[in-house]
Every structure is written in C-alpha cells, then in structure tokens.
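New to this. Please check both lines:
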Amino acid sequence: MTDLFNEAFLDGLTERASELKFAEIFAHTGYSELFEFHGGAVLSKKALRTGNPTIHILRFTQAVVDNLLKQQWLHDLQSEQHRFQYTRGVCDALMALDKEKLRGHLKAKSIINQAVESENLYDIMPAVAAAIGDTELLLRHIASHEDLYTSACKLFPTALEAAVASGHTDILSCMLSYLKNNVKGKPEVDSWDEMRCAARGISQALRVAIRLHKMDAGNLIFDFLADNRVFSGSTSKYLGERLIKDCMTSGNGALIYGAFAYDLGGSYHSSDKGTLGKLPLDEFEESFLFKFGHPNALRHLIRNGQFDPNKWAQYRPPLNYALAKRRYDMARVLLENGADVDARTKKLGGKTALWQAAEQGYINDVKLLLEHGAQPSHEKRAFSPLYATGYRKCRFLLLKVMEHGKEYLSRPDLWQIYDEES
C-alpha cells in the first residue's frame, strides 16, 4: 500500500511539473530536484501531451518514437499502447546527457516545421533500442562495437548510457558481453586504441549510473571491469578520482564505496563491499566533499565508517571547514552524527568553530552552534568566543545563552528583545 501511495504521489508531482515551462521548473528548487531524478517522467508527459511542441528536443523525441512505431508495423491500438512505453524509454535515456547540455537543449526552440534528419534517426537506432530494452532491435542495427559507445547525435546518448539511464540492465549486460567478445587489443591488432575507446565509453556509462543513482547498472559495470582487467586497465588513470567526485556531488552513497575502492586498487567487485576495510578520505577528497559534495554523500560516508566527524585531514575540524565554506547542510549532518561542537583547530591558536564565527560576525553560524551546545565562553580569555567578537548581535546571543541556556534561542521574540535592549 505504501509503495502504491508513493508511486501515485510521485506521478502527481511529475504531472504538475510537466505542466510548467522548463524555465519555471529549473527556477523552483523542489521541481528542479525532482527533475534530476525523475526528469524522464516529466519529459515523457510533455512529449505525449504536446501535439506540435516548440522545444526541439521534444519534437526530436516524437520523431524518434514515430520512427520506431513505423518499423514495428503495429496496428492503431498497439501503436498507441507502445507510444507511451517508447516515449518514456526515450525520455529516460535523455537524462543520460550532460546536465547542462540537456538544459540547453530544453531551452532551444525549434524552427517552425523543422524536420529531424532521417539519417540521425537511423544512426541512433542502437541507442534507441537500448532505451526501450529491445535486444532484437539492437542486434539488428549494430554494425560494429563502436555503435555501442559512440554517440551518433548530440541530442541522444550512447547505447550504453541509454541502457543505464532507462534501467535496462539485461540489455546493458548483453552489450558488455558483446564488447568483451568483439573489442580487440594487442597482439590481435596493432594498437590499444579500440580497447581504450571502448573503455572510455564504459567509464562514461558508469558515471551516468552514479549520477542518476542507477545502482544495479553501476554494480554491473563495476563487476564487468573487475572481471575483465584488459578493459579496466585501459580506462583513464583519473577514473577513480572522477567516480568519487561524481558520488559526492550527486549524493550517491550506495556506490561511493566502490568508487573509493576502484580509485585505490583500479578494480572493484560488488561482492567485495565492506571487505576492504575503511577507505578514508585524503585531504583533497575531504576538501572537495565540503566544497561541492551532497549531504547524502557525507551521511553515507559516516554511516559506512569511511569518515569520522571528529577526525580530519585538514588542519581544522570538519565542522569548522564546513562552516568556512558556508555549507550549513554539511555542518548539520556533522552535528547530527556526533561532531564535537567545541573541537579546536590544530593551528590558528586552537580556536573552536564558535570562536571563529563570533570573531568574524557570522550570526547564523553562532546561533547554529549555540543551539547544538557550543560553549559561549572559556576560562581563558583568548579562547572565549564572548571576547572574540565585536559584533553586537553575536555578543547578544552568547550572553543570553550564558544567562538562560540554549533554549532561549528558540524564543519567537528573540530579535525583538535585542532591539529593545540595544
């Protein structure tokens, strides 16, 4: 019953989003986040609703689906039944495109009566077949292994990426097997160029799986690379680092262990999860996490024992670093998971996060830290936040907590009292 309710609720949200202009979707935080993970549903509803859309990528989607239906030789009733399925698969695949490029395409208007080139529709058939999960159609249109990992059109992803984005792991497995049997390296051919190109395409598909939270597809590709070292050995030496960044920015905690393990050893199999011990962050990774990372990534790292809120690679505690980067979302995750609110820096005179916030006049930081139990004063004047600040609002908060406790900060008339006492 809960799953049915959640499905109906999500369907309602995507329906509402599909009624908005794309500019309105991306300007609204909630709908923008919805589009990140359920954009295929939003796009398909728009494409099915609009008879002659002005957005070129929606016209392109309709042309792709019409071409599919013509090839299938379906009667009218079957055609309408398949139109929804095909449109959804094609739109799900579009989410594999680079986020900024996709948004650019969604803003591009179509020239009146502009036709979609038939050559493009034919060339992208392997990727379209992967998007709708049709293995027979895929095999009919593969001329070489390059058709699986190269994009024939800027408006559509590769076949590997399309299978990942649309969730067809069966056809993804089929394509990986095809690559294993058909891509050659030395000594069978003169160079490793083919192998490197195929490995690059597989790597990109893995990054799509991470970004779109396609866990089954991600683990399938990790396992393929682990079982076929000739492919993993042909990937970029920076792939592991990129996978970690992708996990951090997208908040994909489920695959982040695999990303760290791959970066460490150049290989990771899903059956190895948890067996490799803790894989702590280095200074660069920690810095990237707190600058660009998603709070869900931090939650998973803490839960999996890969990150200790009270140990750090930087010269200052994670809490201090998060606040210095104005990452209140990350600071709250740290505080919720046992970060020492009064931890001191290794350098800079051993200052707490509250001391630094008070000294610099960050009122929101001061209030947040006091609400979580930070000490407003210290027996040594040099360490006391109260004496560090010259900002009246910060001093007001510190004094009130000293006099009445942190509960005082929840008063609705807090700032009215400040105005009266000033």
Remarks:
- Residues 111-115 have pLDDT under 50 and may be disordered.
- The radius of gyration is 26 Å.
- Residues 14 and 38 are 7 Å apart (CA to CA).
